[in-house]
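Task: sequence design from structure.
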């Protein structure tokens, strides 16, 4: 009997309630082109790069041709596209690889999003066009070695004004794209007024250094870095003019939490496809395992989680487009969808038995990567407290 083809995907309905019908023909055509590009260019090389913990830099110029960066940002020659479309782009990227989706999210959502939300018109014109073309790669420096969940009130990186320059000292950790970014949006506490401000640090500025974090077991393609700032002098022209407190930082995070929910949906989509095909092809006890009740139960549970998460992500994108997306909505979407993701990759691994821990079969990599999605942009517990505060009117943060 023939064995299953490793990593083969079933042609199954992953959108049972037809949320893609909310998109117009042009948006669906863009997504079809992206899916074709990813299956031809990224999918054949992704396991090798994951195993070696290396980023496929050679794909960046090819990706630039699709013109997908900063889709939700209003550009001079390209009006802002709907958040719903941006969400489905994240889904498609994550369906193949969540690390590549993370690269896109950090660059397009966090870095470009910070400049769009907090930069002056001059700063936007200076940086956004080359970032859109992927001629300059962006990163986002918020998390610190001693500050993760408490970063809102505990930033140790400082900025001190000296004439027309700011002197930045401190360190950042877990910074995606950090090893090869051309510019990093760095959030630091102004020593004069104790408020958090945003700065664009360019990679060639003296006193700045980036070191790759090694030995990760999740998002291995993502090049997370430890960044250090030793008296880095940043001109006033590089201070984001509309970033004057952590509330401005949170404007960016509110939107990107929604994109993490979309990434979770994308990973669930890819895992469900390979699980369904495996169930059709794997023969045990003289018949395909897809004919057994326990296997069908695992697939149905996967589809239920996927469908519920897609519905939440899609509605969240509509609220973003309407300008009424609230913190608790982003927090609930991020925590719910990544928790469901964690369940789904476990069920997919269970369905495949021993083959579920081999990279070739398409589950082992997302099984590990799901742990990172579950934790970044606010742990489940922190997001739960944001939701709980909105329910009770009481803050349980300490």
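Answer:
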């Amino acid at each position: 009997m023939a064995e299953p083809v490793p990593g083969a995907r079933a042609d199954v309905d992953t959108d049972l309630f037809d949320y893609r019908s909310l998109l117009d023909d042009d948006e669906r055509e863009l997504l079809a082109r992206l899916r074709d590009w990813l299956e031809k260019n990224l999918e054949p090389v992704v396991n090798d790069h994951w195993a070696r913990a290396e980023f496929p830099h050679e794909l960046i110029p090819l990706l630039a041709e699709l013109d997908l960066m900063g889709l939700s940002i209003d550009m001079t020659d390209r009006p802002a596209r709907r958040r719903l479309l941006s969400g489905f782009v994240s889904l498609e990227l994550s369906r193949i690889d969540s690390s590549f989706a993370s690269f896109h999210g950090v660059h397009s959502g966090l870095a470009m999003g910070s400049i769009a939300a907090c930069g002056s018109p001059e700063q936007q014109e200076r940086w956004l066009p080359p970032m859109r073309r992927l001629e300059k790669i962006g990163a986002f420096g918020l998390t610190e070695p001693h500050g993760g969940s408490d970063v809102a009130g505990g930033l140790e990186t400082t900025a001190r004004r000296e004439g027309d320059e700011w002197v930045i000292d401190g360190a950042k950790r877990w910074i995606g794209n950090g090893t090869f970014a051309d510019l990093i949006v760095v959030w630091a506490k102004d020593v004069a007024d104790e408020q958090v401000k945003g700065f664009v640090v360019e990679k060639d500025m003296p006193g700045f250094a980036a070191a790759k974090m090694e030995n990760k077991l999740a998002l291995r393609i993502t090049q997370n870095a430890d960044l250090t700032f030793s008296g880095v002098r940043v001109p006033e022209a590089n201070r984001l003019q509309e970033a004057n407190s952590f509330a401005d930082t949170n404007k960016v995070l509110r939107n990107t939490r929604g994109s993490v929910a979309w990434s979770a949906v994308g990973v669930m989509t890819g895992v469900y496809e390979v699980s369904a095909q495996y169930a059709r092809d794997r023969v045990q006890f003289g018949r395909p395992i897809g004919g057994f009740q326990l296997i069908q139960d695992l697939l149905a549970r996967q589809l239920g989680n996927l469908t519920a998460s897609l519905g939440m992500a899609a509605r969240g994108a509509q609220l973003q487009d309407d300008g009424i997306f609230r913190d608790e909505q982003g927090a609930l979407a991020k925590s719910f969808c990544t928790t469901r993701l964690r369940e789904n990759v476990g069920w997919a691994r269970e369905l495949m038995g021993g083959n579920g821990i081999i990279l070739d079969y398409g589950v082992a990599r997302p099984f590990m990567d799901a742990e990172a999605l579950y934790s970044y942009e606010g742990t489940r517990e922190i997001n739960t407290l944001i939701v709980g505060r909105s329910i009770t009117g009481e803050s349980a943060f300490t």
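Strands lie at 138-141, 158-162, 165-175, 183-190, 196-202, 208-212, 225-235, 283-284, 287-288.
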